[in-house]
């Protein structure tokens, strides 16, 4: 089974800037992700502690799932000196290309206790148009 995912590291991507600077790069990070197969399909589990469900965006295009959002850093003092900094803040993006046989148009997502879980059933008939996946609180 082939699965492609951007590695977990800090990346820089050129994004359109409104300030008029042509060479501006904006950093983003990639959250830790598990992808595994169950009897009912594929499960994608993403570690996103400190996030609100409203700050997550899931977009599907063909066999690709894009998970993006922004984790704010609102709990540290404005002027501080780090001794260790391992928590990523700011914009994040993860693009996962699923192997054949799974239907992202029927995916269900839930966010609970800092983890985003996306269940993707095995494929029936799928749509090729881009779509969004809504995220529930996981408390149903």
Description:
By secondary structure, this protein is mostly beta strands. The protein has one domain (25-74, 86-136): Immunoglobulin-like. It is built from no helices and twelve strands. The protein has strands spanning 4-5, 10-14, 25-29, 33-38, 41-47, 56-61, 64-71, 90-97, 108-112, 115-121, 131-132, 135-136.
- Look at the structure and give the mean pLDDT: 80
Assign the CATH architecture. Answer: Sandwich
Low-pLDDT stretches are: 6-18
**Helical residues, percent:** under 10%
N to C succession of SSEs:
EEEEEEEEEEEE
Q: What is the CATH level 1 assignment?
A: Mainly Beta
Tally the beta strands. 12
The CATH topology annotation reads as Immunoglobulin-like
Radius of gyration: 17 Å
Kindly, what is the distance between the CA atoms of the first and last residues, rounded to a whole number of angstroms? 32 Å
- Fraction of residues in β-strands: over 45%
**Widest β-sheet, arrangement of strands:** 1-8-7-6-11
Categorize the overall geometry: elongated
What structural class do helix, strand and pairing data support? mainly beta
**Number of structural domains:** 1
Counting DSSP H or I runs of 4 or more residues, the number of helices is 0
Oligomeric state of this protein:
single chain
Main β-sheet description: 5 strands, antiparallel
Task: Tag the structure with descriptive keywords.
Immunoglobulin-like; five-stranded antiparallel β-sheet; 12 strands; elongated
How would you sum up this structure in a few lines?
The protein is an all-beta fold and 140 residues long. It has strands at 4-5, 10-14, 25-29, 33-38, 41-47, 56-61, 64-71, 90-97, 108-112, 115-121, 131-132, 135-136.
